[in-house]
Amino acid sequence: MEQSKGGNKTFVEASGHDPLQGGPEVRELETRFAQYCGVKHAVACASGADALTLALVSRGVGPRDAIFTTPFHGTTAVSAIRLLGATPIFVDIDPATFNLDPEQLAQAIDALIKKDASIYPLPTEAAGGRLELKGIISPDLFGLPADYDAINATAGEHGLFVIEDASEAFGAQYKGRYAGSLSDMAFVSFLDGTLPETGGLCLTDQEHLAEWMRLPKETGMPHATVGRVNHMAAPQALSILTRFDALPEEIRLRRELARLYTKYLDDNPLLVTPYVPRNVLPVWSRYSLLTESDEERSVMLKKLERAGFTTGIYYDRPLYLHDDFADLQYREGDFPVSDDYASRIFSIPLHPGLTAQEQERILDLLNDWE
What we know:
Number of strands: 13
Mean pLDDT: 91
Order of helices and strands: HHEHEHEHHEHEEEEEHHHEEEHHEH
Structural class: alpha/beta
Distance between the termini: 65 Å
CATH architecture of the largest domain: 3-Layer(aba) Sandwich
Largest sheet: 7 strands, mixed
């Protein structure tokens, strides 16, 4: 970094560190986020994909390893699994929560152990007996933590690690514990949640894993097993920390609006409102509804979009049907809940910037079904 004109010191000279190499801002972020989630260690990365990849490598994931995850999600988890030469094993979602179904997880593990796809759908490679049990990646979809008591118990029975994807649920609680602290490890992609900034984070109580993950970040050297690790830069950390201060109020307003939506949409016979289990406190990164059919969804979306409201569909095609993962050779219909919900789900606007008039208008449009 060159010295500026007039003899003024550069940022590096004045602060004693290069902003692109982290520094005290990143360490502050790691400390505050670890304390917030109730874990001992946090390791910041440039993105959520970097954070997950680093977490997987820290657990020794590589070729012939089977990693269980859901097909009803974005591509980050599956892409990271395949980057390391491992194989994703899909498990369908719980029809009530949209999250990984613990009962079907147990069935999928049993099928892989017995190499019997008649018990539960498996990719061709798994049925051929060439894969070994390794771990689970469990997303907390739409801001609602998964059932970690059940998932962790099943994982423990078979010696599997669990990585929680807390990206969409940062600030949520499960039985009094915060998302990010609910399994062996967790990762966060800030871009996907209530803190829409670039950057990622690994969270764990295990000191040896944190030390290993910090090594390339502190030295600026790549891990031989993962290549160049992209660490978080100081400007990223500062931007996230600024948003972090406002997070409690952001979450409060989201919960307030979600309660309003549910109150006035619960009696609509054409819609299914989100289910929240007891002892779970979501953050509502998205408010997703189910319609009776794809056709009815199209009607709802058009009404909202004509009125100027932005909507979304998460997700309209389960991952196992994507062309990029066709080599796994799953068959259409293998994951019926994901298939069904992909044709009926949609998300409506939910953020603190919505005025009372806009909220009322959204509800009126959705309830105008007669």
